Records
---
Amino acid sequence: MSSQKDTTTGRALRMASMGAGIAGSYVGYLLQRAFLGEAKGKIKLKSTHMRAARRMADEMQALRGPAMKLGQMLSLQTGVLPDEILAELATLQMEAPGMHPSLVRVQIKGSLGREPEEIFKQFTAEPFAAASLGQVHHAITREGHRVAVKIQYPGIRRAIENDFRLFRTFAMPAQASGHIPKSAIDEIEKQIIAETDYQREADNIDFFAERLAPLSFVKVPRVFREYSSDKVLTMSLMTGRHLEDFLAQRPSQKLRNQLGAHLFELFYFQLLKIEALHADPHWGNYLFNDDAGISLVDFGCVKYLSSETVTYLRSVFLYPGASDSADFRRLLETYYERAGEKLLPAARRALLGFVDNFYRKVYPPKPEKNQLFDFGDATILRDFLRESKNLVRTMGVLTEFIFIGRTEMGLYQTLHRLRARVPTSQIVRKYL
Amino acid sequence: MGTKEKAAPKRVTRRGVTAKRPVGRRAQNKAAIRKRIVTAALSLFQTKGFDATTTKAIARKAGIAEGTVFNYFRTKEDIALHFFEQEVDQAIASVRDNPRLRKAPLEEKLFALVHSQLEFLAPYEKFIGAAFIHALKPASPLGIFSHRAQELRHRYVGFVQELLDESLPKNQYSALSFLAPEVFWIYYLGALLFWLHDSSPGKQHTLAFLDRSLAIGVSVLKQGKR
């Protein structure tokens, strides 16, 4: 494998072989399932996923930028990929190959008009973090502020378009088998393209800084516009540790609970109060502090929700009646109609299944006082994945929900890793 | 062929050193006039086109007598060639004189070299496009077959060889690595053409092209040496 990488048959070829590799193994699985018994089929599925996952992580790591981003996106795309693949892809999230200092210099000069040393009092040539569409460097401004400078890899937009063209072609079998729905790929491409505009990201940061102000436990960076452009984004340096490092400190159950409740509240506050979502929930974008504070760092992927969606969410969250009641059914159908879609019976069944098998467990409609939900329980992730997979298969997912679902999955994954106990329904109720 | 070309860079190195020797006022004056002529000529090449520009117009623009121009350059082609020599020399110097780059991986050095050339050419893009076509005519003094252009190419190729020598282990030579500097010259012309046709803002596609193709090229080279 590594020798193949060294010969560098080229980006396209590698992407192609990757596509063929993954698609190939799914095709193989679909064929084998037809001939194997139920139990055997399950075992086979698991090993197919593992193999595909390894392959995907390997290949995507070797590629720069967009494919990497796509990997990350898919890794949190609920129901799109099986959990074995998700687990494997999660390892991708903090690593990306980088630009050498000469290229960084050229990008900064091309974008801000001057060399990094002329702009900043101090600029560290080596990046401290990989952003998937670029990388982040430490710097100190002339006024003495410690900042993070995010620099975009050149020509990224076209590379994304090319990658998606290839990905669509080679993911055909996976699309056909329902593993990767087309609407999901479209929505992800749109979002990744939007992320290449750092000016837009700067606007997102300002928006969130203002709207999240009521949540005292959340910190949002400050943008330094005079040091920013569409390809360079300079922000104040945030404090805190990544999840892995935070957990390595062996934080107490109390701290983990607090942090869990904060993450949870942050999610529902965004969804229901500010109607926009910091929708790139991968762990690299959250920094955790010992006072249970959360620092947000990456605002490339923000999903602004329509007010219809938010109204709908309010009406169905913690719905007190029976999930098979005519009233609840009408709520679902009306929303789908407004979105210009018809709620097909299979999709409705899948939605109701989701409510009964997942949401009512995690969010009891009538919770006892201080009732906590324990996210340490691994079955919750599996339940969520299973139910969303069912829903995706029925083509019952509205594109609006792709990013909500993805962020929600990210939230549960993080809460699970924290093994946090959270008063779920109580927090949601606050914002209904 | 290989030995002849390898001799070239050493000569160049010495020439580079002579140029840095402290110069007298007279020489300074001469250099200033030479620079004025080149600047005037380039601005005319860029706006009026290479063919339509006369030495008379260059002299007028530079504010000197036409005869004076001939003291420095025989023809406008000479001026253009002088400019390309400057392009190559300053690019070589920018890599050679950067202590950080000396320790950088080969692909970064080559990137810095090519980028420094393109940056030098950038203000005269229109002219470069025209010169590129000119250079392909076998009889043109600007052409890649002219004596001075050959010499310039040797200097460039010699420097690339130098970079390869310091970056790759000596004892593992293959056919590929002997050819590499010559191939790099052709690669550079290709990159120049790519750059000329790159309409992306800030020539972002050229940067991506350089970065990716050099990474691939260097890894192929390393593989060939195994």
Note: DSSP finds eleven helices and no strands in chain B.
---
Amino acid sequence: MQVPDLIPVVPEILMTILVLSLLVIDLFIKQKEYIAVYTVVGSLLVIISVFYCTGVTFKGMFVADSYSIFFKMIFLINVIFAAIISVEYLKKRASLYGEYYVLLVFATIGMMIMASAGNLIVLYLGLELMALSTYVLAGIIRTDGLSTEAAVKYFLLGAFSSAILLYGISLLYGITGSLDIREIGLYIAKEGIINNKLLLLGLVFFITSFGFKIAAAPFHMWTPDVYHGAPTSITAFMSVGPKAAAFAIFGRVFMIVFPALSGSWVNLLIPIAILTMAVGNIVALAQTNIKRMLAYSSIAHAGYALLGIIAASNEGLSAMMNYMLIYLFMNVGAFILVIMLNNQAKVGDSIHDYRGLSKSNPLAAFLMLIIMFSLTGIPPTAGFMGKLYLFMAVVNAGYGWLAVVAVIFSAISAFYYLRIVMFMFMNESIEEVKLSLVDVNGLLLIIVVFMVLFIGVNPQPFVELARLAIL
Amino acid sequence: MVSLDWYVVLSLIIFFIGMFGFLSRRNIIMMLISIELMLNAVNISFVAYSHYIGDMAGHIMVFLIIAVAASEAAIGLALVILMVRNKETIFVDGLKELKW
């Protein structure tokens, strides 16, 4: 028997070793902070290994190309952020279990497998590993009714959407006789079956299920509830990780399996993208809870990123990847400040708790200001560069009007992002809050804001990285 | 010999029965059962296609789906227990703290 080439899967193997050793170490260590440190150090080592392990293995089932490496980088940075910001937050809620980190790392392994999937079986298994771990993470605060409610809602709709994805996979398998993504694409192109009704049904099932995972309207209903109810550290984790992973498989499946049908799916995705931007931006205007507002904003950002897939070109795909990286920094930055406020007694999630923050904590308010500018897309922040590349891609693909629509919705979004800024700088505080920027959360916030500004001023290396990473 | 069409139609019917059950039931246990029904409809179609094409990949997929469905059921039931503890109901109508 021939041993398959294991080099491309080394990052996943290292992560699995990390997670298994976490399970054992958890039994002996009472101070769970050390487990967080161990997770962070392990994930940093895996990031280094990701760049050296490329290739295709297991007969094309596992593809570690530069596309997947880019996404794995996003997932690993995301898990490091989540591991750090969770410590104090969960300790205050008496929920800092070792299993929490085990599940975080398991979810990340699932995402890494999804990004590398060359076969629909692998794709499904990675998706389920990610999803099942995230369901449990959403409900990790066992005594909190909101957390439980979020977990149950996420679980029911997530399981429903994976069943739909499975039926789509089975239809594709029945039509083409293969589960290999590349072979299916070749078969569809060769046989010229683009008008096959069952194939179109399978395409619709794929769009539905991926729409659930990236929280695109009209499949977004779970998002605000789950993001609101889940622990804030998990909200930060799952508003970036699972979304980026879903975009990774979205791009890979649609660009390799269905390029021949791009006429059909672009027409399906355009209304979805417009509706997603509309629902996300307009409903966010009415929110008074900041987690819920950021949930709607994350729906809106999924709509922007969908433009990269609608462009159906390598340029669009690399713009989408670049946007996911930028979104990672700005979104995690916003949630770090929410967590820092959550960690203070008496301060809740309401946007009114941000009143007068600039008086008591000028530096924290200034950092939040930069992040809000970036989420809006105001230069010189990274959010502007990300949107610029996305809109350029969609204009070059011949949908200039769609870019105009996106810019209009982006202008609407300025209202609710800048409202936070207004509360912070122009209102008197109801209650004095003292935030410390010299603990880990504060340092992380400074690093994230630095990255947001750095990418905004000097986007070239990151754009090049994404451009190299196209399929 | 039963032709492939019958299996495909059977699996579609079961899949949509499951989907209807998921959307119409209010009891979480029944919703979980409906999801299982949808997954098993997928299994029928995989086995039918696999036999018809003469390819083993479909059979492997079915085993993996069964395994994943089992873990999904385990997590689902654990969440139901959590819900009974925190909210003392197993109906989705009890999930109304989070809205808009």
Note: Residues 263-471 of chain A form one domain.
---
Amino acid sequence: MNAPIKNASIAEILKNYDNPSRDKLIPVLQDVQNAQGYLSQEAMIEISNCLKLPVSKVFGVASFYNQFKFQPRGKYEIQVCRGTACHVQGSSRVLDAIKKHLKIEAGETTRDGLFTLEVVACIGACGLAPVISINGEFYASLTPEKVVKILDQYINKKESKDDE
Amino acid sequence: MMNNPNITIFDYLPESLISKYLELFNDENKEELKSFDNKDNQLKLLRREDVLKPVIFIGTGTCGLGAGAARTLNSIKAHLESININACITEVGCVGLCYSEPIVDIQLPGFSRISIGNVTADNAGKILDKIFNQEVPEDNVLYQYKIDGLKSWNNVPYAEEHEFLSRQTRWVLSNCGIIDPLNIKEYIAKGGYSAIVKTLKDYTQEDVCNIVEKSGLRGRGGGGFPAGKKWKFALNQKEEQKFFICNADEGDPGAFMDRAVIEGDPHRLIEGLIVSAFAIGASNAYVYIRAEYPLAIRNLEKAIKDAKKWGFLGKNILGSDYSLDIIIKKGAGAFVCGEETALIHSIEGKRGMPRPRPPFPAIKGLFGKPTIINNVETLANIPAIVLKGAEWFSSIGTENSKGTKVFALSGKVKRTGLVEVEMGTSIRDIVFTIGGGILKDQAYKAVQIGGPSGGCVPENHLDIKVDYESLKTIGAMMGSGGLVVMDEHNCMVDVARFFMDFIQRESCGKCIPCREGTKRMLEILNSITRGRQSENNTDALERFTGIVQLEQLASVIQESSLCGLGQTAPNPVLSTMRWFKEEYDSHIYERTCPAGVCQELITYQINPEACKGCTLCAKKCPNDAIVGKLKEAHYILEDKCIKCGVCAEVCKFNAVIRKYSENII
């Protein structure tokens, strides 16, 4: 199984799987989401054809797991850790600050398509709670004030690029 | 393996294979090793018994990266270039002192290895300069490693004397943060893979099962079932195909031991998995790992590739007739997949829902074949048990719980991180001696152990020994090893609500007691923590019936749920109710939250003497609940206040008072 190329088409991804059986369903879904950012209706139909499974089964599995998304994602994906350690260190206030600053709820994407806000069960960096990750980059020991500053950095990055 | 670091695979390999492995060993491009064609000298260098040029080790596990290790690394590289020093930079995993990350170790030729904490991009250069001048950076130094024949640093404690490490017994974590996880040779130099060589040479499958059973090793994932006993069920099945699954789907919020082991010492897991798979005669092994651990997956993939190259995996391992492949399966994010049968369904490409047992997976598991599932920590214990024997392992621990246990210590504690202690160590020792006590010297309230299935340890039970059975007596459980410390500013009702919210979201929905029951429990807890202004008469009645039913509901869920997740789901509520009844009472009867956490139960008032009448709070109030004229004291209308706390945040004169309970004003 090769690492899927970003923006690869579903056909290309499915080529990596030779005659895929049922147990390849989740890896295929993961690869498609990796390449396209989310699982579109068309993608799921194509996958179901290839695996010879009803679309309902494919969607049933995809909707069971937290990892799979059915809407396009923002440019920056914010994951707010809501593990126990983060919770006792005040992660709910951090989450509130993000919601307020970006004016979106968890699971939503900002209207300019810049941020998607996700709540995850545990990132596994409990010693540094509260933690968030933005596109895989970790920010630790946060406070509501700190997180707003971090978000502004990303917003400004976008604006300075617009100027160029 | 750890006591006598000089034993390696070369001491166990049959004559016919030694030359092949020597060749593999010498196949090395690094110039520093090239000059050493002698195996023993190479091993010595790989064990860092001395170095030829300065070596800088930087912890770039998830914890380190979170604390900014990537920026530190860049700054170190730039600094080395600017001062023109030729040093070798090695990225290692987590040593477990999360509170001091980013951690950088430096070893100069002829000197022992010294550990420095809190090395940021700003101070890295200064610290390096000091070390190169052979001075100790007093403010940041943590400890040094004792290495015979090397000059030690003055006035720097040894690792085994360090406040965080001295009470620990590091077996599973012995290599974490010390060796380069991506270099199989360093693992081998530390005695790694000897267990496989020894197993295939000296033991039958039954022997291995017997050794593990005799050692008393119990599943570290939470259940605590004796590992060797479980393996024998599968061993006795007469099937062509059997499977071994390593459960690395560390879903408990608050636990990160498995991640640290895989990131910092992936070969130990692989070796343990190979030996275990051999013991039951498995043809394929799976590692089911969370997709949220990208770094761990990367390290594991590399380690499996290397293990194959070295012939520890694949066809006819070490010339024997045993063959094994390890397949990585990425979990897609479902807490319930920690349950054995749900995990099996997930690997089969189905929704991760548990099924009734029996038949147990050891009889009928993955694809209908006998399957054994053990978690990462259990398997990481196996190599040492096989090498050193059952007696060595069972020599420490309590009567029914042997060996060590790794805990992820976090929350309101001074020193957070990975803690590996002997079974039988008290919670007090872990929190106060190793953890250094409560953050900001606040009062201790409880330790939450065992995650969403576990319970709390209150102050009067702090001396309880860590052991599978004893923890159950106070309504807690070992669980996978998350230890979250809470102080007086944490509300136990809120903590119970937090876990209930988690469980009801993660309930797979298959059986009704869990699906509906946990949801109802959450509703009841929500109603307790809701303020008066947002409830009408029906709500109030609902709240009272809920409170009356809460305990009965909990016992129904416990008794009638299908899987372990459901059966243990009410534990956080029951445990907090048992030990912190007064706190529930003040929420229910007085409608106050003594810890000041439950937002809707806080009352906001303005101190007329401190208020300057700047009108800022009135302007910022989203619900127009603040009235008052310019330069006159303002007033909060309690009926309109939505308890958002904005007024307290914006007030420059600290005139807004948060009132938590009747006695505080």
Note: The two ends of chain A are 40 Å apart (CA to CA).
---
Amino acid sequence: MEDRIAAYITRTREKALEQARAVDRQIRNGEKISPLAGIPVAVKDNICTDGILTTAASRMLAGFVPPYSATVVKRLEAAGATLPGKTNLDEFAMGSSTENSAFFTTRNPWDTGRVPGGSSGGSAAAVACGEAVCALGSDTGGSIRLPASFCGVIGFKPTYGAVSRYGLIAFASSLDQIGPFSRDVTDCALLLNAICGHDPLDSTSARFDVPDFTRFLVNDIRGMKIGVPEEYMAEGINSGVREVVVKAIALLESLGASVEYTNLPHTEYALSTYYLIAPAEASSNLARYDGVRYGFRAAKTSDVMDMFMKTRSQGFGAEVKRRIMLGTYALSAGYYDAYYLKALKVRTLIKEDFDRAFEKYDLLVSPVSPTTAFRCGEKTGDPLEMYLSDICTISLNLAGIPGMSIPCGFVEGMPVGLQLMGKHFDEGTLLRAAYTFEQNSDYHRAFPVL
Amino acid sequence: MVTREDVEHVALLGRLELTEEEKEIYTRQLNDILGHFQALQRLDTGNIQPTAHVLPLKNVYREDWVGQHMPREDALANCPDRDENYFKVPKIV
């Protein structure tokens, strides 16, 4: 299976078996075990694991073995989950197809000629083809939801601040958030129970009352007020995808939700806003890769400046360099106000669109992506074309709200994801809607035939 | 309009050494991408406050306590070159 999908950068079979034996011992001793005990949860390779290679799919970190684990990894270990391996991604999580991995491209289990989506493509593919029961990914502009949609699994991006980012290799710190992949909504709730909550090691982690997310697994959405933003159903959305999403919305309505079309008027500015803010933050975050304390260092350099320049030029791939260039440009003297500051102001307008919509609606729904999974190589030549894959997902990161992709049908054999969007820290409403949809449909039971 | 000189300047700021081919590609692509982003200039944002991040957090304080620290060998384990307990780099001047 792995020969054909290539979901993992590193497999940790021995570690998983050792963890599983520990759970077996607990069961034999009659100890109480957690619902995740013994469950294989794969982890995206930009999340640090103590003593286990963590590369962010970059040559820059090709040999990096972290001396500590991310808070989410510690929490999964505490819950007894086992680690089958570290999954492939676009280099430093920059991309929408996993083709920017410095090592290899992961394949979509539904059609191995197509991409799994990105950047958490390895995690989505591993869960889709049964190489892991669940997985963790990270989502800066759609990097959990897009691959979940392309691979026909559930992907959840929690509210910004709901999950600690400590030990997540930083891409764009005001947008990054870790979240789970699973095959059903119940597992998604169990993983959220394990990973959500305040962490003193992440100063942007929020203090909030973490509920037991399983109490939202209720098959009832009667009276739920759902808005459908027209901008997310407009031209540019593939007609087959739109048809499937319209049918899914009709199902939610038939189950007792009230559905209305609404507007998020600044949607057309989201892509530009995102692709200024995210590269600006990335250019700053990636300044740390200088060949001094860890990671790759170029050979044969004349002085320290030459070493910095050669190390970074040889260590980073084309998309990462492009974003460093774009971000550095947007932050540089003379352009800061016109680009970066302008983008931060438009971000306010985008967030206010959501604030207004959530005065009227409990939930917003839309497609996750304008198309189903595209062919490998189809969009690698044109960065803007690739960026457009994120058009329906990026606004949520700018606004910091939770978002979820759930399987809602197929177009020519390829899965389509329905995006659920909610208020800050209202993960519960998303889970309830997703659970109700799941209990009244069969899409999540479909498996790819390999 | 991003010129080739702009690209060379920004590459230096970002500590990237670009090949002639890369300079050409990035000049073209930055123009394409930033040209697309010109749409933002249509919006009047005169009185709008910028949003750097979405949480209602200002300063975050905590108690200053003595915790467990990473052993020195662990902290040095990934470095490309060292001299005893120091990170070693090529000559600076």
Note: The mean pLDDT of chain A is 97.
